[in-house]
Amino acid sequence: MDEPINRLTEDNPDSRGDIQRFDSAERLIHWTTALLMILCIGSIVAIQIPSAMVFFGGRTILRIAHILTGILLPVPLWLGLVLSKNSKCLKKDLYSLGHFTKEDFKWIRYWGNNKTLKLKKFNGGQKANYSFISGSVVVMIITGLVMQSFNLLPLNLRIGATFTHKLFAILIVIVLIGHIFYAVGNPESLKSMITLKVSKKWATIHCKDWVVESEDDDMISD
Amino acid sequence: MAVYNKGSSSVPVARRTVLGFGILGVLGVLFGSKLSNRLNGLFSGLSPNNPLSNLLPGGAGFEIYTVAGFPVEKPVQYRLEVSGLVNTSLSLTYEDLLKLPVTHLTKDFQCVTGWRVPNVKWSGVRLSNVLELAGLKENAKAVLFKSFDGVYTESLTLNQAMRSDVIVAYSMLGGPITEEHGGPVRLYVAPMYGYKSIKWLASIEVAKAIVPGYWENLGYDQNAWIGRSNGRTDQPVD
Question: B7 and chain A: CB distance < 8 Å anywhere?
Fold first, then answer.
């Protein structure tokens, strides 16, 4: 294992070229989810601003848009899993995103600033982002449905649901701002969500152990 | 080292995450109201006009509720109809209301869903003044209100309606009442939960008995005293 790591460095001629980071199914899932998320957040923000509410056609339309896009949020990922049975990338990436190792907790503790960290495809921060957002969508849908149940459930439950919904809304926005902040700060990473590829050079810096591990994997294409 | 088993038929979503957050969501629904009440007013330093105060839990902002959209009526066209068991039916213009003796109140607005806006400035005419102007008949026992959105209704007993902290308001938050707050004219029933303070007030009808309003028909209490109804224990507004 140690040998190839030494071989792959920024200046090494072997580090040239591109490697595939995502597949087209993942790209489609990412951007449809992103679109739903933007509509979901945008509609509820617009409701808070009277002039915007009137501009977008009133409270009722925005409310329906918010509820609908919110409920649809998990659908692209779910559909992707059902339909693209052949997308090894999606299953593999989801598996590793959903499973924390000691290495990931170490990454979070040092926020990546530690030379001894193993650099796999996804770091602890990315995994935490995925877990938090996917889990929070569950919270938002549960609490959102309780909020809508005007006559069925006692008032106290609706107040609890409203509170939890708002609290997680703030946390989600903070995490999403972080997600966008790191994406913009790493243009190559952001670009790969469009072109599906990263340069081997970038990958060697950020995900050295992934590059080594997947040298003979079919996800790599030169 | 996490190894992805290529032969595995299991769906690779993090079940534990989904389950854990699901439980968190249910706990939030069950116990969130207690936390919510404790946090209430935590951000009360924010102005009620600040949009941020609507977004923060515990922020002291109005949440804009409407059951039938936003009816628009300009003060010029506005008429407040007063009818029923009165000696003289009235049709008051916005100007007429401004000419009546003004009452200023600085009091909290408490919603039955938990949010509260402290120290809101209200100005208007006491409902009792309007009723006295029309003259009450002997069998008058209740007052019914209608909104010009055509859907929302409310009612008070005559005793409740005659209180000095129940006003036909034309000003709140230091200016004319805006469209989303129920302008140009709304009711403000200080000691009761917000659903009593009917927005876009169109008509007042004096009657023999109360008629349950929009929210009463959906299960809210008719006598909506803050802290003594709807199973809530908020600080009364008096």
Answer: no
